[in-house]
Amino acid sequence: xxxxxxxxxxxxxxxxxxxxxxxxxxxxxxxxxxxxxxxxxxxxxxxxxxxxxxxxxxxxxxxxxxxxxxxxxxxxxxxxxxxxxxxxxxxxxxxxxxxxxxxxxxxxxxxxxxxxxxxxxxxxxxxxxxxxxxxxxxxxxxxxxxxxxxxxxxxxxxxxxxxxxxxxxxxxxxxxxxxxxxxxxxxxxxxxxxxxxxxxxxxxxxxxxxxxxxxxxxxxxxxxxxxxxxxxxxxxxxxxxxxxxxxxxxxxxxxxxxxxxxxxxxxxxxxxxxxxxxxxxxxxxxxxxxxxxxxxxxxxxxxxxxxxxxxxxxxxxxxxxxxxxxxxxxxxxxxxxxxxxxxxxxxxxxxxxxxxxxxxxxxxxxxx
Length: 368
Prior knowledge:
- By secondary structure, the chain is an all-alpha fold.
- The longest helix is centred in the N-terminal third of the chain and has 28 residues, at 24-51.
- It is 68% helix and 0% strand.
């Protein structure tokens, strides 16, 4: 958990613009983008340590090095952090002051606070979900025990994403109980962010009481942190369509792809919208080429792409497929076991009107 927090602070300093004055949109974009970027960096460091056979060396050492060099390269780092702290204090105060409108809204604030506390309490605990214990946390634990990279022929080994490899840090620090907690660590920020455009707090209660929230907080899989931050970034970009928020959005899209391939379900419509924007609206902008160059040459994007490439190479080494479990008919056409496994996971829990379970649980297992 300490490594995660250190990398998160570093990510904020890395992603926030160095020269431009910070405003509401920039701070929210930087804070949300830092969550998936943190998981990507921590997972990338973990994957490198595993491949080089040094997974016994605490990732805390590398995390301290990252924050040291980040601070060294940001002379005004302290003023940035203080400005963010002041901004968040004001946002929390404004959120609470909404309850002064009437007594009902005040009751809603208390209920939101209670729900957040209960959700966070539910997230504290051991990894007891079969999938999470088997490979999301199980394989990083095995890498830690063996101190090196290995291939055991398991079909799930190639499914590991950088968010799963990041669990190595929690294993090393002996705080596995925080793996589930980290997945919803951005929930209070999401509530405060949404409250700015939602006047009635009842809708925030409805959001927090969705059954899948408990699944996200207790299952121990990387299901919420990255994609929820991505959606928040998309909302920010839609509201101002700045080149800065677009860069962070693209970084978060690639980061989410390194966590789990099913992120494509959420990423695809966003990419379609971005494509239409670039080829229709942005073509009217005379600075289009300059903006594209700014994004493509940014160090943060290059680091993200490097992590993505390294992950795909690791999947090829494990399964013989860069994009496992996709394209198995191309890369694994002679392996019937892998093909059948790919078909199974692509159709898992997709029967009938499966999307209704997002809002209404159809069984006790849907509750967590």
